[in-house]
Amino acid sequence: EVDVPEDHPRYQSLVTRHRIEDGVEKGITSTQGLIAEGRGEAFDYLLGEETIPSADRAARAAAAHFLLAEHPVISVNGNVAALVPEEVVALAGATGADIEVNLFGRTAERVQAIADHLREHGATEVKGLTADARIPGLSHERAKVDADGIYDADVVLVPLEDGDRAEALGEMGKTEIVIDLNPLSRSARTAAVPIVDNILRALPNVTRHARDLAGSSREELEAIVAEFDRDAALEAAERRLREGALADGE
Ligand code: ATP
Ligand code: MG
To answer: Hey, what CATH class is 53-243 in?
Structure first.
């Protein structure tokens, strides 16, 4: 990784940019991914670059969903692979979730490069290379998923997903957990659990909650899921964006 002085006030954001740049160079991240990164940074800046309390509650609800799920799957795209490969593997380990590469602009080369990259960071099994099932309601290339992966999942974590596909997955009856810094995006708005937070913070936070909840009963986990209010979480995030930390009371 490039040398960024740790005392630089924008250290985290600079490291993040370099990871995305590296991702593009390695053929993991698309040039569209660069644009998504820029959008994300703007929202993170407005959020104060911290995990707001409502996002932490969402992360806990997400962890409870994962632990209750029969077949949870973490969907990985080019930005996710470039930014948090080890964290994806850690979350899968803590929850028994599958990892599946799932791309908006799918090419066989990119899927392979991402799968290799995840294996280099400790993943044992990576799905998404077979692509033998389709999400109904989407055009051919964008609909491809693995029959024994996302197609079969009851709970899917789709970080930084495009709104269309998030909607189509929701219509398949899956419980969708979305990580997206933009609370106004359709992806966040269709999710059962929208986590409005930077994936760099959100993913390890879900893992931390999953480890913390590992000994909980189904009843306890179900209570956490039932208590979570998605509309309130989106509203709290939007308030933070518009009014800042002092005004939102969080
Ligand atoms: P819509 O959901 O309204 O259809 P979109 O999906 O077309 O919008 P994209 O630019 O494709 O918009 O989506 C990228 C999303 O990912 C943006 O909402 C952006 O804020 C978010 N994002 C980018 N980087 C991160 C990150 N590091 N952590 C969390 N979210 C991020
Ligand atoms: Mg979106």
So the answer is: alpha beta
Mutational pocket test of ligand 1: of 185, 199, 238, the residue with most ligand atoms within 8 Å of the beta carbon: 185
Domain boundaries defined on the chain:
53-243
Q: Residue 232, class by beta-carbon neighbours within 10 Å (0-12 exposed, 13-18 middle, 19+ buried)? A: exposed
- Residue-level pLDDT, tens digit, the chain, 250 residues: 557 788 887 888 888 999 999 999 999 999 999 999 999 999 999 999 999 999 999 999 999 999 999 999 999 999 999 999 999 999 999 999 999 999 988 999 999 999 999 999 999 999 999 999 999 999 888 899 999 999 999 999 999 988 888 899 999 999 999 999 999 999 999 999 999 999 999 999 999 999 999 999 999 999 999 999 999 999 999 999 998 866 555 5
Find the 116 Cα to ligand 1 centroid distance in Å. Answer: 24
